[in-house]
Specification:
Layout (H helix, E strand, L loop, with lengths): L2 H20 L5 H11 L3 H14 L4 H16 L7 H14 L3 H5 L12 H6 L4 H7 L1 E3 L10 E5 L4 E6 L1 E2 L6 E2 L2 E10 L2 E6 L12 E7 L2 E4 L6 E2 L8
Antiparallel strand pairs: 1-2, 2-3, 3-6, 4-5, 6-7, 7-8, 8-9, 9-10
InterPro entries: TPR-like_helical_dom_sf
Organism: Leptospira brenneri
Protein name: Tetratricopeptide repeat protein
Amino acid sequence: MNPMRTYLLILFTFSTVGLSLNSESISETNQKAIDAFYQKNWSQAETWFKESLKKNPNDPYANYNLACVYTILLSQCEELAEEQDIFRLLKKAVTYKKTYKGLMLKDKDLSLLRNTFRFNEIAGLSPKELFTNIFWYGPSPGAYGPISEIKFNVNGTFELSLVEFRESDGALEKPKYKGNYVWVSEKVIQLEFQKLPPAFPNQTKKRQARWKEDTLEIDGFDYHFVDSPDRCSA
């Protein structure tokens, strides 16, 4: 056989194999749903994905992408579904298609929920990986959002941000306070602040924190932290 023809045959064979491995056949209703999705016609996309799930409730493609639709709408404060509904869809999706676990961690359509406990649990992260993926928020009593936010990093550091109003002119400020932490047990963390807010009555820099799923309690704070802010209250 001509060497050039042999090369082309091998190239064609590998190209065909690659195409079949990377392609994902989807149903007609899923195709209609995804067409509507790309046109940002969310209501139509929802209708078609739900139609797919009527035929096959375990369809991972429809479950996953309907979760994306609802997350996008939730980010716009259009609450057609609650977070728990979205998590149920994602859980079913990854149950029947394991590769969605990795996809959901980088999918921009799901970014609103990426730093919550349940989201990272469904993605299969270990407890310590999960903990450092969460953003923890204090209460949101008004239009300025959470009064505090704390993030723990994998390198053993953390940063607390507070919402404060300057006494001189009432301007909004968001000072940051850093520190280090170590694990005492799987659910207990020892924190040490470099510096504490002057207004804190107790200036003890070393404090224990306890977490259980989507709730975090830190000694010296008269409220607990949760993994999701009250986004649409204002």
